[in-house]
């Protein structure tokens, strides 16, 4: 392929692309109907002119027929009067109009066919224009719907859906964290109550044990007169070791 052919193809492709981009369907439909209406006007003018020519030819044909009939009567009259020469002249005039009438009849037949064809074309064009107008409204509605759908699609595409979903996920995570904190707080409150009750129960056990220990360390009740208490029969325990043991116990408790 030569350089000129390649350049021609590139230029043609670019021109076609520009034309396709410049074509607005709605405007093109309006322009097409305007052109059809202009053709309709011209066709109506053509039909009117054809009908006028047909009328003139028809009138000329009728006039020629009248002249034929007139000169035929004149020839008959001349023969009746015995003027054969005058009758011959009348027949010559009749023949002239007969030839004219024949030519006019041929033209009239052709014009009649032409007018009928133009009328049919006119009716068809009017029907096509009416159909085109209906289609134009339908196509305009479809174009409007398509544009709306395209705009909606562009809006959906332009929306940052991932960012919006990320925001929803963050909010959901915050709600979950808040619910977890609320649940943990409730558990801590319940645990604190359980601890308090456990302490009360443990404290009660210690108190009971302390009371029992105190009771066991109380001196025995005095014996009846005349009898010695069993404790007097034994040697009294020294108090100093007990005091030292008590001090050691306090120190152990302080270190705990």
Automatic annotation (TrEMBL):
<feature type="coiled-coil region">
    <location>
        <begin position="47"/>
        <end position="81"/>
    </location>
</feature>
<comment type="similarity">
    <text>Belongs to the PspA/Vipp/IM30 family.</text>
</comment>
<dbReference type="Pfam" id="PF04012">
    <property type="entry name" value="PspA_IM30"/>
</dbReference>
<keyword id="KW-0175">Coiled coil</keyword>
<feature type="compositionally biased region" description="Low complexity">
    <location>
        <begin position="224"/>
        <end position="233"/>
    </location>
</feature>
<protein>
    <submittedName>
        <fullName>Phage shock protein A, PspA</fullName>
    </submittedName>
</protein>
<dbReference type="InterPro" id="IPR007157">
    <property type="entry name" value="PspA_VIPP1"/>
</dbReference>
<feature type="coiled-coil region">
    <location>
        <begin position="108"/>
        <end position="149"/>
    </location>
</feature>
<feature type="region of interest" description="Disordered">
    <location>
        <begin position="202"/>
        <end position="243"/>
    </location>
</feature>
């Amino acid at each position: 392929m030569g350089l000129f052919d390649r350049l021609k193809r590139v230029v043609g492709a670019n021109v076609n692309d520009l034309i396709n981009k410049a074509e607005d369907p709605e405007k093109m439909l309006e322009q097409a109907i305007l052109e059809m209406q202009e053709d309709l006007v011209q066709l109506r003018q053509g039909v009117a002119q054809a009908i006028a020519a047909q009328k003139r030819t028809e009138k000329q044909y009728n006039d020629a027929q009248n002249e034929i009939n007139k000169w035929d009567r004149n020839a008959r009259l001349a023969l009746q009067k015995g003027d054969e020469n005058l009758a011959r002249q009348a027949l010559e005039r009749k023949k002239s109009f007969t030839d004219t009438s024949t030519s006019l009849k041929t033209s009239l037949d052709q014009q009649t066919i032409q007018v009928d064809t133009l009328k049919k074309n006119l009716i068809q064009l009017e029907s096509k224009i009416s159909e085109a107008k209906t289609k134009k409204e339908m196509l305009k509605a479809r174009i409007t719907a398509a544009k709306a759908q395209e705009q909606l699609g562009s809006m959906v595409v332009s929306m940052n859906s991932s960012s919006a979903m990320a925001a929803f996920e963050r909010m959901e995570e915050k709600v979950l964290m808040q619910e977890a904190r609320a649940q943990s707080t409730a558990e801590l409150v319940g645990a604190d109550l359980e601890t308090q009750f456990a302490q009360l129960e443990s404290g009660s056990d210690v108190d009971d044990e302390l009371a029992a220990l105190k009771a066991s360390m109380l001196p025995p009740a005095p014996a009846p007169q005349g009898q010695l208490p069993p404790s007097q029969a034994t040697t009294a325990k020294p108090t100093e070791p007990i005091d030292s043991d008590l001090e050691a116990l306090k120190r152990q408790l302080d270190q705990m």
